[in-house]
Amino acid sequence: MTAAYNEISSRLEAVPYIRRSVDEVKLAGGDQWLATLDDHMENFAGYLAETGGSIDDAVEGFVEMTLETIRLQQNFFKTGKFNTLDDYDDQADVYQDRDLMVRRYLPGLYLAQLLWKNHYQKLRFFTDRVVPEAQSADRAFDVGAGPGTFGLTLASRYPELAVTFNDISPFSEEMITALAKRKTGIDFLPGDFLKLDVTRPYDFVVFSEVVEHLSDPGAGMDKLLDVVAADGKVFFSTATNAAFYDHTIIYESVAEIRSMIKDHGFDIEFDEEVMALESGDGVDVIDYNAVIRRAG
Ligand SMILES: C[S@@+](CC[C@H](N)C(=O)[O-])C[C@H]1O[C@@H](n2cnc3c(N)ncnc32)[C@H](O)[C@@H]1O
């Protein structure tokens, strides 16, 4: 059961700080984490083979993303500047950059969900507490799906559930198609979520780490309300004080996030806060994960 762990750990020799942080996740997650990692990495190997990628590149992408996150976060704590898109004219151009998305962003994010302590806790929150909430759903929608981790988990758990994936990046669809264990009952509605024409609302929506990437986060929340059915539910997540090169907004506190959700017509069914990074002076990065629904 340690095959996937060994494969990754051996590639982290040159970055002992990151290797130690992965070992902490292993210690906390035990056999359940090892089994989850094995399962995901077996699937991920298929994706890498199909797209001409390699585990070396994927782990390198993960390391780059981790180091970049730490660098941008420290810069934010020092300067208050949270996005640094010097290489792009427009924030949305990031998602069309094949080299960035295929080699680093998407595989880096996929691995981070398993290898970062806070992200693995979110994955557990999703599998243990959120997935049962989709039990009676017929149609699910994963918005800004990236590597598709959450929508694909729903598709595996509920074979009859129709799952539609959206992302502004065309490389997300490539990745999700390769990672999907079942090839039927899955489809794609690509493009900018804010401009999508959704004719029939969905009874389960995944909206994970998307709002802080939208050109107009408030319009994104209004659109979310439009695409969820009257009795539908949403898996929502974002973070406080999270700096990354493609973020468009900073939420300063969890209270601000909760108010924003309520102001846009939702009730919070249940939520959790996970400390991701303490700055030392109270400006912490806290992951916020929740199940929300239309206010009734
Ligand atoms: C941090 S990733 C989150 C991916 C995934 N939801 C998860 O939680 O792992 C943000 C994703 O949002 C996508 N995205 C950014 N702006 C978008 C937009 N306007 N419409 C749809 N997707 C968008 C990006 O391409 C990227 O895949």
Describe the protein:
This protein has 296 residues and is of the alpha/beta class. It has 2 domains: 113 residues, no CATH class; 162 residues, 3-Layer(aba) Sandwich (Rossmann fold), CATH 3.40.50. 48% of the residues lie in helices and 18% in strands. It contains 9 helices and 7 strands; from the N terminus they run αααααβαβαββαβαββ. It has a 7-stranded mixed β-sheet with strand order 3-2-1-4-5-7-6. A hairpin with a 7-residue loop joins strand 6 and strand 7. The chain is globular. It starts with a helix and ends with a strand. Bound molecules: S-adenosylmethionine.
SSE blueprint:
Layout: H1 3-10, H2 16-51, H3 55-79, H4 98-115, H5 117-130, E1 139-142, H6 149-157, E2 162-165, H7 170-179, E3 186-188, E4 202-208, H8 217-227, E5 228-239, H9 254-263, E6 266-277, E7 285-294
Parallel strand pairs: 1-2, 1-4, 2-3, 4-5
Antiparallel strand pairs: 5-7, 6-7
Helix pairs in contact: 1-2, 2-7, 3-4, 4-5
